[in-house]
Design goal:
single chain; about 700 residues; alpha+beta; Hypothetical protein af1432; Beta Polymerase, domain 2; five-stranded mixed beta sheet; 27 helices; elongated; binds manganese (II) ion
Length: about 700
């Protein structure tokens, strides 16, 4: 407790006494929970959460975050539950601990670049509260600082993960010092030999150069003073990892990478930037083509500075960055400033703005520690609002647009999986295919060999890939269904001649295909089904190609409709025929057959074109459900709609749609229902039971 007591005292420099006492009780709680656990170094486990909390305290994070840091491993490593934490330390703290534990649970399985990028984005997107990420970063920082105690193989894995995932997150959040430290520590543990050699070389070079750098710095400062420019001048030291990366990526030698002096000059306003630039150019000659004015033309992310490179004394180039303190803050804030500039329109939420301010203040505090900074409560951030990140059963991560459903996911894995999907398990639970996926969902698609895409999927899929594959499949299926319908229509037409398809031989078919310049027999059949060719005409042609064309008889039967023909046979939206209604088939060019009721006005209009009309009859065995519209006039009384709906359900029908229009005087209301029924008898039964409701004045079926 000695060490903890010292830290509590330090933290009380910026936290209130009641915060400190909560932290003390969190410390005791955590110590008890981790009792008997030890770190690889041999220290009691509690030393780790304490160190993590202390890192956060260096950044002046609020007491909720520090409390959560003290407790961050208890849910993973001990029997403590979220409810217990919530009871003792409040819901916000419990949420933070839960968030950190969730991130811990994700296993990092592949080291491929794209995967790493998705992983980073997912971590950021999952942690809706940015403090979760900060606790996680502090946790990782402490683990990296104490990595020596871990066995070499695990050490390398953790270092790789830090390099690929956590350092870039820190960088993205603009947390520069954490980023640099994480990168250098990863480099050190990934490539211990290279690190040692490079560190030695840099140390030697710095020793040799210290005097020269000091002289150049002095002359710059003096020249600025002479020009009455108030400025802070800093030498810029390159970090080991960035030296190493530059050597590798640009194929430079160590001497070449290090052979530049870097200076940053911070002044009070834009005007002073240009005066400072003039002063520097007067002191040393600028190298042509190296000057960049990012103040007049800022970079896309909002970065502003003047960059110039000068011929230094002894031939060593001098890189200088000149900027105001404000620009410096934005440069250091990385993506945080990016949020602010990203959407200048309305979509940038207050929350993001606040988060930005907070990150800035955090940065400010890092550099001028000791400043009192006001922390905002409940900081939440959604860094990637347009994407969700989903796990495959094998642990692969896939990025999908927000709003994507299980069907979109299925198609993004593979076209066949999309075409055959029948169900989905999300986080091990069976869910509807239309379910919208959330960040971190583990999604498993269940397929069946003979399953087909459903046209209704088009109503909810959001990815272009899913949409185009479903459309393509339906088009192909449409062709097959048209062939089947065409065959039936042709058979019926042949019956006019007391013949059937069996009476037509291959020679007749081949001839017809050739004569009509079709590609195949199937194409002709599909054309009939689609109404592009008339069955009667094709029948006559086929038979006339035979030896003895039979005489016309005219006693053809009806084409039997069972409702499961698919898209080749559609039921007219105007009259909504149901089994039991007398019906007529109307062939429309390219769209197949539309079934209308006998009394539908559309049929009356089409009388002029008898060739396009077909005798059809219902299959008495039809099992399908059909849509039908009914209208009710009811007296206005409370609960009457519920009563009507209950009665319809009782009669074994589904309600597809309801609309209610009260009449002007308010005594009666019109209700329109679209129902699913199996046939006219079923409908009659429903209407009868509706008439029994006292409030129902009139019930009628609506056609057209
Ligand atoms: Mn930890």
């Amino acid at each position: 407790m000695g060490e903890a007591a010292t830290l509590f005292k330090e933290w009380s420099g910026y936290l209130k006494p009641e915060d400190i006492s909560q932290l003390e009780s969190a410390y005791h709680f955590s110590e008890a929970a981790h009792e008997g656990q030890f770190r690889k170094s041999g220290e009691p486990y509690i030393s780790h959460p304490l160190a993590v909390a202390n890192i956060l305290a260096q950044w002046h994070l609020d007491s909720q975050a520090l409390t959560a840091a003290l407790l961050h491993d208890v849910m993973e490593d001990t029997a403590v539950t979220k409810t217990e934490i919530s009871k003792s330390f409040g819901r916000p703290v419990a949420d933070l601990v839960d968030g950190v534990s969730k991130l811990d649970r994700i296993e990092f399985e592949t080291q491929e670049k794209a995967q790493a990028e998705n992983f980073r984005k997912m971590l950021l997107a999952m942690a809706r509260d940015v403090r979760v990420i900060l606790i996680k970063l502090a946790d990782r920082l402490h683990n990296m600082r104490t990595l020596e105690a871990v066995e070499p193989r695990k050490r390398r894995r953790i270092a790789r993960e830090t390099m690929d995932i956590y350092a870039p997150i820190a960088n993205r959040l603009g947390l520069n010092s954490i980023y640099q430290e994480l990168e250098d520590l990863s480099f050190k543990h990934l490539y211990p030999d290279r690190y040692r050699v490079l560190a030695k070389a840099v140390k030697a070079a710095r020793g040799n150069r210290r005097e020269i750098v000091g002289k150049v710095m002095e002359s710059i400062k003096r020249r600025l003073r002479d020009n009455k420019v108030e400025a802070q001048v800093h030498g810029r030291e390159k970090h080991l990892n960035s030296i190493y990366r530059k050597m590798r990526e640009k194929h430079l030698s160590f001497a070449q990478v290090l052979d530049v002096f870097g200076f940053r000059i911070i002044v009070k306003d834009v005007h002073a930037c240009y005066i400072a630039l003039g002063a520097l150019h007067g002191l040393f000659k600028p190298i042509p083509g190296k000057f960049k004015d990012y103040i007049a033309i800022p970079k896309a992310n909002g970065y502003q500075s003047l960059h110039t490179t000068l011929f230094g004394p002894f031939g060593t180039p001098i890189e200088a960055q000149i900027r105001t303190a404000e620009m410096h803050k934005i440069a250091e804030a990385g993506v945080a400033s990016h949020w602010l500039y990203k959407s200048s329109d309305t979509s940038l939420s207050d929350l993001q703005r606040k988060t930005h301010q907070w990150l800035q203040s955090l940065l400010q505090m890092q550099s001028e520690s000791g400043d009192s900074v006001e922390f905002l409560e409940h900081l939440k951030v959604d860094l990637f609002p347009d994407e969700v990140y989903i796990f495959t059963p094998k642990g692969q991560i896939m990025a999908l647009p927000r709003g994507a459903t299980a069907v979109d996911f299925a198609y993004s894995v593979h076209t066949d999986i999309g075409n055959r999907c029948v169900a989905v398990k999300i986080n091990q639970e069976l869910m509807p295919l239309r379910t919208e996926l959330k960040n971190g969902d583990r999604v498993e698609i269940i397929t069946a060999a003979h399953a087909k895409p459903n046209p209704l999927w088009l109503n909810f899929v959001v990815t272009a890939k899913a949409r185009s594959h479903i459309r393509h499949f339906l088009k192909t299926m449409h062709f097959q269904e048209s062939v089947q319908l065409g065959e039936r229509l042709l058979n019926q037409a042949l019956a006019n001649y007391k013949a059937g398809l069996a009476d037509v031989n291959d020679r007749q078919w081949d001839k017809l295909v050739r004569d009509s310049s079709a590609k195949s027999r199937h194409e002709i059949l599909a054309d009939i089904g689609l109404g592009k060719r008339l069955a009667a005409v094709v029948a006559r042609q086929l038979l006339s190609l035979g030896e003895t064309p039979p005489p016309e008889d005219g006693s053809a039967g009806s084409v039997v409709i069972h409702g499961s023909e698919g898209m080749a046979v559609q039921f007219a939206r105007c009259c909504k025929p149901i089994p039991g209604d007398p019906i007529i088939g109307l062939i429309s060019k390219g769209q197949g057959m539309l079934i209308h009721t006998h009394d539908c006005p559309v049929i009356a209009k089409a009388r002029a074109d008898p060739e396009r009309q077909l005798d059809v009859a219902w299959d008495p065995e039809t099992k399908k459900l059909f849509e039908v519209s009914i209208k009710l006039v009811v007296a206005n009384r409370r609960g009457v709609l519920a009563q009507v709906a209950a009665e319809i359900a009782e009669a074994g029908s589904n309600i597809q749609n309801v609309s209610v229009n009260p009449e002007d005087d308010g005594t009666y209301t019109d209700m329109h229902f679209t129902l699913q029924v199996s046939n006219r008898l079923h409908l009659a039964r429903i209407m009868r039971s509706l008439r029994r409701i006292p409030e129902v004045v009139r019930v009628s079926r609506v056609k057209g």
